[in-house]
Structures are given as C-alpha cells and as structure tokens.
Amino acid sequence: MNISRRRFVKTTSGTLAIGLAGTSAALQVGAAAQQTSNLTKRQNPGQADGGPLHIPAIISVPPGNVLLLRAYGRGVQKYTCPVNPTSSAVPHAILLSGNGNSENIVAIHFAGPTWQALDGSLVVGNGAKATHFPAPNGQGVDWLLIPAQSTSGSGLFSNVTYVQRLYTQGGKPPASCNQNQTETLVEYSAEYLFYIPKT
C-alpha cells in the first residue's frame, strides 16, 4: 500500500472509523457509487477475479442467491483477556476491492458482526447461526457462512442475504495475554463474499 496515503483504523465504542489522510474525496458518496458500480456485477462465485473458489459444501450458499461482491478484508480480531483457544473476538477491518492489491475501500467491518458500505447501507450477520469450517492452513480463523440478520439503507448492502468469510490468514487468539493486559489485537486477513437473492 502507498504509505503516503496513510490509511489507519481507529476503534470507537461499538463502531469503526476509517481515516484516509489526503484522500478524503475518495470517501465521498459519489465516488463510492462509482467504485461499487464496477464491483457489483453478478459474478459466478467459482469464476471470480481471484480464480476458482473451492468452497466446502458445508459453508456453500443455498440455491436462490447470487454473488454481489467479493472483497479483501484486512484488520484485526480483538480479544478480551484472558484468552483461550475458544475465545470469541470482535472484528475491526477495512474491505478493499478485488484481491486486496487495490487501494479502493468499499466497506468497513466491525462488531455485530456488521459490514457497512461507503454509501451507508449495512448488513448485520447472525453470528449465532453462522456455520464454521476450520481454516485448511491451520493458521487462520474459521471460514464462515453467516446468514444476514438485518439490513438497512438503500445502497450496496441493503439486500444482502449471506456473507462468506474465506481464505483467512491469522486472527487466532494468542496463547496468553501479557500481565495486566485487558485486551489483545491480532492481525488477520480474509476474503468476504456477499450474496443477494437471485432475480
């Protein structure tokens, strides 16, 4: 990433703020609409830009849904101390277009789990009903199929039905926290696929 653009992630109580020093125009709604218009073509999930996706059947999206967006997420999983192998985390991440080589932010990801597009629309996943699949590399957090619990707004994410988290790297809880540490942040990355009803 171009360091001169200084992307930073700043957490607040229950939300995520994204700063783009020197690139505030890129976050204007008009620019966001232009970016997302090129990303929302209904692709075949098995033939998306990053090559064929080998998705385990247990986390495959039910028939009647089509791919809306494929994005690359990068951020942290936040754990409350003390931790153990089954500790749950709160995500704080940005989602970039394509395979992550682009500098175009298309959404942010925070507690809920929630994903919010630049146009303000958002989808909240039903974490309690998420289907888990252990990351094949053994190093990343679980792959997930998350049904949407609610949506709001009239933009990109307003009709999302399912979200998949795939190809994870990192994000697993550490063996322990440092003394007097109340929480710990673990870097991670993943691909996120968003689906809407087939029309």
Question: What's the gist of this structure?
Answer:
The chain is mainly β and about 200 residues long. It is built from 1 helix and 11 strands; from the N terminus they run E-E-H-E-E-E-E-E-E-E-E-E. The longest helix is centred in the N-terminal third of the chain and has 9 residues, at about 30-35.
Describe the structure.
The protein has one helix at residues 29-37, and strands at 7-12, 15-20, 65-80, 90-97, 105-110, 114-117, 122-125, 131-133, 143-152, 162-170, 183-197. It has 199 residues and is mostly beta strands. The strands form 2 sheets. An 8-stranded antiparallel barrel has the order 3-4-5-6-7-9-10-11. The protein has a two-stranded antiparallel ribbon with strand order 1-2. A hairpin with a 3-residue loop joins strand 5 and strand 6 (114-117). The chain is globular, with a radius of gyration of 16 Å.
